[in-house]
Automatic annotation (TrEMBL):
<dbReference type="InterPro" id="IPR003439">
    <property type="entry name" value="ABC_transporter-like_ATP-bd"/>
</dbReference>
<keyword id="KW-0046">Antibiotic resistance</keyword>
<dbReference type="InterPro" id="IPR003593">
    <property type="entry name" value="AAA+_ATPase"/>
</dbReference>
<keyword id="KW-0067">ATP-binding</keyword>
<protein>
    <submittedName>
        <fullName>ABC transporter ATP-binding protein</fullName>
    </submittedName>
</protein>
<dbReference type="GO" id="GO:0005524">
    <property type="term" value="F:ATP binding"/>
</dbReference>
<dbReference type="Pfam" id="PF00005">
    <property type="entry name" value="ABC_tran"/>
</dbReference>
<dbReference type="InterPro" id="IPR050763">
    <property type="entry name" value="ABC_transporter_ATP-binding"/>
</dbReference>
<keyword id="KW-0813">Transport</keyword>
<feature type="domain" description="ABC transporter">
    <location>
        <begin position="22"/>
        <end position="249"/>
    </location>
</feature>
<dbReference type="InterPro" id="IPR027417">
    <property type="entry name" value="P-loop_NTPase"/>
</dbReference>
<keyword id="KW-0547">Nucleotide-binding</keyword>
<dbReference type="InterPro" id="IPR017871">
    <property type="entry name" value="ABC_transporter-like_CS"/>
</dbReference>
């Protein structure tokens, strides 16, 4: 599926509702599989106000797509509630308040770009002008091209054009730039910035902290079906770009010292290699003090980590071996 289903109803007057663009309360979603129940979303509360540009950031399997599918009315919550502009999602879709660009989806390959946009426009009672939509998504030059001849990035722009046809107040994008090269990615976000500047609410899922940082006003970090951080881009950036404190710990009592650091409120992640410990810290001063004063550590270094390292620390997606089992027995 490419975009949300077009409405067959007469156009409803799209007055602002005064309600949040998205309101999730106690959302959970589980799937039954042969291997047992999968808890994809484990209790998410989230309010997005109209006009916000929000990145839902998280690693693979965090529950981003499942959450967005609930917002789009494509799947029902197991428990909790969802409202889009104060309405059930499907009603918001039918009213043209909400449209989506999903990761993949069925474009008709035998049609041209323009034919595709015209076809979908004809299913709306009051669509946006086709030429306007083609121009805004940079497709005017490509309008005579068969969809089958379009690159992945161009097809994604076409999906974007289709999503703009009902003039939605909320755009939901699930990893919209997946598979695009750097130039296409930059062009896509340039266009999306213009749409956000027109007052649309934009909610997008991404794996990339850099992409969230570059485009969103607010970042909601999701891991293992829960929101683990939510704040302005600057807040998340400062929280995420914590410093790493490296030190040598005495052999005696090293396991207990590592456990103490793991429980430290200023530590986001702790790794051990030989007699060296590395602590990704949200409060590097406090961690350094504990290591030097309480744990007898020495050879201390404090370095600023990369954003990517920090994201790993924030989401707990470290794929390194558990340091406690490895080194700190
Ligand atoms: N229909 C389904 N049946 C069973 N399990 C599912 C189903 N849909 C999702 N899951 C599982 O739920 C969890 C969350 O999946 P989801 O696709 O929401 O994560 P995501 O954050 O979007 O990941 P990605 O970035 O890889 O797309 C995963 O463990 C996934 O395997």
């Amino acid at each position: 599926m490419t975009t949300t289903s077009p409405s067959q109803e007469p156009a409803a007057p799209l007055e602002p509702t005064g309600a949040p663009a998205v309101a999730l309360r106690g959302l959970t979603k589980s799937f039954r599989t042969k291997a047992g129940e999968v808890h994809a979303v484990r209790g998410i509360d989230l309010t997005i106000t109209p006009g916000e540009v929000v990145a839902v950031l998280g690693p693979n399997g965090a529950g981003k797509t499942t959450t967005l599918d609930v917002v789009l009315g494509l799947t029902e919550p197991s428990s909790g509630t969802v409202e889009v502009f104060g309405r059930p999602p499907r009603r918001a879709v039918a009213e043209g308040r909400l449209a989506a660009i999903l990761q993949t989806g069925g474009l008709l390959h035998d049609l041209t770009v323009r034919e595709t946009v015209r076809l979908i426009a004809s299913t709306y009672a009051a669509p946006t002008d086709v030429d306007d939509v083609l121009a805004r998504t940079g497709l005017t030059e490509l309008q005579g091209r068969l969809v089958s001849k379009c690159s992945g990035g161009e097809q994604q722009r076409l999906r974007f054009a289709l999503a703009l046809l009902p003039d939605p107040a909320l755009l939901v994008l699930d990893e919209p730039t997946a598979g695009m090269d750097v130039t296409a990615r930059r062009e896509f976000w340039r266009t999306m910035h213009l749409e956000a500047a027109r007052g649309r609410t934009v909610v997008f899922a991404t794996h990339y902290l850099e992409e969230a940082d570059a485009f969103a006003d607010r970042i909601v970090v999701v891991a293992q079906g829960r929101v683990i951080a939510d704040g302005t881009t600057a807040e998340i950036r400062s929280r995420a770009s914590g410093r790493t404190v490296h030190a040598t710990l005495p052999a005696a009592g090293r396991g207990a010292a590592v456990n103490r650091l793991l429980a430290h409120p200023g530590a986001a992640d702790v790794r051990v290699q030989g007699d060296r410990v590395s602590v990704i810290a949200t409060d590097s001063d406090a961690v350094a003090r504990t290591i030097l004063v309480d744990l007898g550590g020495h050879d201390l270094e404090v370095v600023t980590g990369s954003l990517d390292e920090a994201f790993v620390a924030l989401t707990g997606t470290s794929d390194t071996t558990d340091p406690i089992e490895e080194d700190a027995r």
